[in-house]
Amino acid sequence: MLIGHQNAVSTWQSAMDGGKLHHAWLLAGPSGVGKATFAWKCAAQLVGADGPESPVAENHPDILELSRPPADDKEARNRDEGKPYKRKRNISVDQIRGLQRRLNTRPTLGACRAIIVDPADDLEASAANALLKSLEEPPAGNVFFLVTHRPGRLLPTIRSRCRTLRFEPLAEDQVRGIVASERPEADPGAIDRAVAGAFGSPGAAMTWLDEDMGKLDAAMRALIAEGDNGMERRGALAAAIGARPTPERIAAIFTLGRRLLTSRLRSAPPLQRQRIIDAHADLVSLAARAPTANFDPGLLAMEIGGLLASAALPREAA
């Protein structure tokens, strides 16, 4: 069920009803707010899989999804068995070329085919260039949905060939309702804390619960507010991160840090604003390097903690 985002829904429906459907749609906004859900709903409507007698959308032959694949054969078996599995770091050019071979054939069941790239942020450089060719000369009947959390990372030429729909954070009561429905076993107090720390993202709130992010949130907020002259707060952050964080947990940690800095910027005194902006930029850069740098978790915690602490005002200024 899609909650909120009425502007996006209205724009899409008007295009469908008017018979002037753009061939590529860029779904842009924070992670976890419903962009992928929207993409699947639009794809199902496009290929006629949204009625009670239609094939299940996830198994429809005319809906193709591209995302980061399993890291290796073992992880592929884990995926096929419904177990957690590790993914590769990017969507590869070979995946795009495989898609393009499909695009040269007719749709299986109807006149349209939907292609979902989730997220398009994960396209490696050669894959992005290959996808651009399909967006420049799209085969008839094929409609692309590019999910992006950071549209600025995409090629300008890709963005220019898409119609952009923007997705804003949801209201807290909307997030709370979604999380309570999806995680009925969760303690109401934990849900409240997750919602408060999710900044309008139901996906982030559920990750908060799944990854037990409460201690991380408290440690990060202390670093941003008070700094860390004696390293104690960075030590607390390292303990909260854990000795063997999963890639998913590390990604959630970076997302939480960016959101906390952005939230702090809104109420920060003028002397602190540039410090927060610089810390945010450095955190984004570190997040981009972390998957390939193979950081020791303790070292990564110190790096993250140092960046967050740099956003705090010096004691004499505070």
From TrEMBL:
Set out the biological process GO terms recorded for this chain's protein. Answer: DNA-templated DNA replication
What residue intervals traverse the membrane?
A: none
* Pfam families per UniProt: DNA_pol3_delta2
Which residue ranges does the record assign to the AAA+ ATPase domain? 21-170
Query: Gene3D superfamilies annotated for this entry?
Result: P-loop containing nucleotide triphosphate hydrolases
Q: A cellular component term (GO) from this record?
A: DNA polymerase III complex
Checking SMART domains in the record gives:
AAA
**What is this protein identified as?**
DNA polymerase III subunit delta
Region: Disordered, residue numbers: 52-88
Gene source species: Alteriqipengyuania halimionae
Origin, by domain of life? Bacteria
Quote the biased-composition stretches of kind Basic and acidic residues, using this chain's numbering.
Answer: 59-84
